[in-house]
Amino acid sequence: GVIVTEDSNVTVNVNSSTLTANKNGVADQYILALRENAVTITMDKNTVLNTNSGYLKGFAEDQTITVPAAYVDELGLEGYAANIDVTAGVATVLGNAVVKIGNTYYGSLKSALEAAKTNDVITLLADITLNEMLTVNTAVTIDGTNGDSVYTITSTAKKAFEVNASATFHNVAIVNNAADGRCIDTRTGNITLKLENVTLTAENGASQPLNIGGSGSNITVVITDSTIIAGTGYAITTWNPVTMSIANSDISGWAALNIKGASNSIGSAGSAITVKDSTITGTNTYNGTSDGFSVITVEDKNVTIKIQGNSTITANKTGEANQFVIDLNAHQGVTVNMDATVTVESNDGYLAGYVAGQTIKLPEAVASAITAENYTYETADGVITVTGTVSSAPTETGFTGANMTIGKDLSMKYYVFVAEEHVGKEITVRFTVNGNEAVEEVQTPDASGEYAFVVKIYPQMLADNIKAEILVDGVVLESATKDNYSAKQYLLDLMALNPNNEKLKTLISNILVYGEETQKYRGEYNSENPILDEATKAIITPTSKTPTVNSALLTDSTSTVGTKFYQSGIYISNTNKLYFTFVSNDIDNVSVKINGKDVEYQKYTTIEGVGDVYIVFTDELYANQLDANHYAVSLYDGDTLVQLYNYCAQDYVYAMKDHATAGAITVALYNYVKAAVDYFEW
Q1: Of 125, 208, 392, 624, which is least packed with CB atoms within 10 Å of its CB?
Q2: Rounded to the nearest 5 degrees, what angle is found at the Cα of 652, between the Cα atoms of 651 and 658?
Q3: Which of 22-31, 288-297, 389-398 has the lowest mean pLDDT?
Q4: Band of pLDDT at residue 185, cut at 50, 70 and 90
Q5: How buried is residue 389: exposed, middle or buried, by Cβ count under 10 Å (0-12/13-18/19+)?
Q6: What is the per-residue pLDDT for 70?
Q7: Is 57 exposed, middle or buried, given 0-12, 13-18 or 19+ CB atoms closer than 10 A?
Q8: What does the alpha-carbon distance between residue 93 and residue 91 come to, in Å, rounded to a whole number?
Q9: Average pLDDT over residues 244-270
Q10: How far is CA 433 from CA 372, 405, 407, in A?
Q11: Burial class (CB in 10 A: 0-12, 13-18, 19+), 428
């Protein structure tokens, strides 16, 4: 070659020159002979290339070559791609182009997503392997068409794609090999997600190939001609209200459709899901009596599911645990309608969790297999209609139910039905807990329906009686007062309604233990009304795990005025946050950042021999952030970084697990958090 590279990381610039490769014998002579990767050759448009043999030998990945545009077709770069800059008169050839947008090529899907504009089509040119999550922040189409086949994106990150904008995935296969992995995870509302001839596969652990998460609403999902495979996981999971249509597709997992209630999300109430001409399958391979599940499981109210056309639903029990076709988990306002043409198959059960306020239509062929109390059914036109017989919809203003929400704190949410006579009036709920009144914000209904009011519950107050009163224009509605209830009672009732849900039982058990230990730690133990009385202890199954690794990283302070970290830990209250204390002999020049954001500090105390101690806090943390979420805390003297502290809640638990005073509550908090993460699949 005229230019030969025999090492990597080489850069050669050629400007206004002539390169001539002259073959006089049998051996080839090239303009460029590249024998190592990571080589960059740059020529300007005034460079002239002459050869009677060849232009390029040894082109590979991690090489970038810019040549005069006139020669790009002579390079013989089969399988590679060139971006032609007409203005500069050159062509840049990428040795590792895997995607393109129009005529612009990119060496990674990540770089293409970062460069994409609204409605761009990102076309795959090869199979892609990912080891980090990719974020879709712009409305794009990802097209994996490969002739008559499709390209495959394989990920080892827990999430392959986090979607924060409308997106279409077309003719592509996405495989996630991570434990509890997700192929596509939406995190916002007001978007449309389309899957067209897409295969999503995530089969390792509690996987969720398609997860509709975050905290948004107004979400539309359209799935056509696609396959979603979850193995022992959940093929499609929704945490938010969604309008979803599934057509000509195959959906399979432990659960095919997993419709979740509120946690850190809004919950799936109001969702409408239509399945047409598709196959949905739930297979239960487990043997534990608590591992019963279903093909369709609904854990929120006011959900409508339609199964139409030539669809097939199959519940397949291969172990000892039960597998039902539908489990409605005793939620009100759930409607499931199946056409007479739908095939329903089960080698175990058909219907679980059925209560009043639910309407189910199933093909007549399965009528004889349905056995349960508290409902009746009638048959017409090949369909059996199952109707609740216990209660009817409310007609007077009053409480309709309550549940607990887990976020930055523990809260009880009370639902109020507002009758037409009270529409337009101020509706308030007054909560009295342990003698303390807390009036929820006023709501003015503009139509009759159901409204939610929230009261925060300190962990140590789980067993305390909650009195809830409805006020209409400031006047108590005596007929609607709900007394003699507690967060503990709600949790025990919920556990009784779901005797086969082991994860839920573990979460409830750990919440109650956390409340008990908080009482003891804060000196507020109520022996007359304990959270863990003997009857409760007999039915709960808490865990007692502790971290095995301390991952905290603290650099040495380089301050010349004694600025350095002193202590750190978890501030435990009704909401929890991390705290960091520090000392300094020149506080006027000190500043603190947490994850790159300036935070205010305040004087905490004065310790003899140490001096003035100052404290900073993180924001209030959600339960799932009280685990292994690291926070980078930086101490500055003026503009100089003098000390860095990388720290997470788990590190505090590791350090304090055997502490005489704080050990028990710290371990209880840790186990509550781990159980919440496991149950909500955060």
Answers
A1: 392
A2: 110
A3: 389-398
A4: very high
A5: exposed
A6: 73
A7: middle
A8: 6
A9: 89
A10: 38, 17, 20
A11: buried
**Residue 597 three-state SS:** strand
**C-alpha span between 85 and 89 (Å, rounded):** 6
- Determine the pLDDT at residue 390: 42
Tokens of 53: 């043999």
Query: Two tokens at 573?
Result: 């209250």
Contact 582, 563 (CB under 8 A): yes
| Tokens describing residue 142 | 């990802």
Measured CA to CA in angstroms, residue 174 lies from 196, 244, 288, 312, 576 at distances of 12, 20, 32, 24, 38
Distance CA 249, CA 310 (A): 11
Residue 537 exposed, middle or buried by CB count within 10 Å (0-12, 13-18, 19+) = middle
* Angle, in degrees to the nearest 10, between helices 649-656 and 663-680: 140
CA-nearest of 241, 208, 248 to 224 is: 248
Task: Give pLDDT, residue 90.
Answer: 66
pTM flag (> 0.70): no
What confidence tens digit (pLDDT) does each residue in 355-378 have?
Answer: 556 677 777 766 555 544 445 556
Cβ–Cβ under 8 Å, residues 235 and 207? no
Token readout for 546 is 């502790």
The alpha carbon of residue 495 and the mean position of all alpha carbons in its chain are separated, in whole angstroms, by 24
Task: Give the span between the Cα atoms of 676 and 682, in whole angstroms.
Answer: 8
Beta strands in 407-481 (DSSP E): 410-418, 427-433, 436-439, 449-457, 466-472, 475-476
Query: Does pLDDT of 481 surpass 90?
Result: no
d(CA 328, CA 296): 8
pLDDT at 628 over 80: no
Q: What beta strand segments (E) does 159-290 contain?
A: 159-163, 167-176, 182-186, 191-201, 210-212, 219-224, 227-229, 234-238, 242-247, 250-253, 255-259, 272-276, 279-284
- Report which residue type is found at 604: Y
pLDDT at 250: 97
Per-residue pLDDT band for 289 (boundaries 50, 70, 90) equals low
Count other C-beta atoms under 10 Å from residue 318's C-beta: 13
Listed residue (351, 350, 344) closest to 329, CA to CA = 351
Q: Give the residue among 43, 1, 35 at the shortest CA–CA distance from 21.
A: 1
Cβ neighbour number for residue 677 with a 10 Å cutoff = 17
User: Hey, what are 149's tokens?
Assistant: 């086949």
Q: Which residues contact 652 (CB under 8 A, 6 or more apart)?
A: 568, 569, 570, 578, 666
Host H or E run for residue 112: helix 109-115
Tell me the pLDDT of the chain averaged across its residues.
85
What is the total residue count of the chain? 682
Q: Which of 157, 121, 117 is nearest to 137 (CA)?
A: 117
Give SS3 for 585: coil
Over the stretch 47-99, which tens digit does the pLDDT of each residue have?
888 988 888 877 655 567 788 877 766 766 544 555 656 556 666 666 567 88
Looking at residue 373, its pLDDT comes to 43
The number of C-alpha atoms within 13 Å of 313 and in the hemisphere containing its C-beta is 33
